[in-house]
Amino acid sequence: MIADIVKKRITNKIYFKSEKARRFLILCGFVYTLRARRRPEGLARLHNGIQLLDIIVKVRFIKKVSWSEAKKELKDFVPYSGFKSISEWLNEVIRLNHDIPRFLYLYRVDVVREK
Where are the domains of the chain? Predict the structure, then answer.
């Protein structure tokens, strides 16, 4: 699989502007992340909001959650998000999006390869 990844030119990017989520991903090899919009699944290069990093990840859609149900629907994923609580995680969503999204899209992101 890694040989196939090296052969492919990966053009998709996934941005991790949240230091907590990015750190969890790099240290643990995976993270659950929330997005305000649907995004492509599959292989992507990791971007920290400033620069592209030499890390390839696999992005997999888990589920769509309404904001009003988020605390209940996402509580089991908090330990794997990089955040200490659901409130901290949702506040980071608001900070990064400058708004409260009507829906959230939960993804699992796994590190596939680091240079």
Answer: 2-114
Note whether 21 and 72 are within 8 A (CB): no
pTM for this structure?
A: 0.89
Return the ∠ at Cα 57 (arms to 51 and 96), rounded to 5°.
Answer: 55
Alpha helices in 8-76 (DSSP H): 19-28, 70-74
Dist. CA 60–CA 65, nearest whole Å: 15
In terms of DSSP H, where are the helices of 8-107?
Answer: 19-28, 70-74, 86-97
pLDDT tens sequence across 32-90: 999 999 999 999 999 988 888 889 999 999 999 999 999 999 999 999 999 999 999 99
CATH number of the structural domain 2-114? 2.30.130.30
Rounded CA gap, 30 and 33, in Å? 10
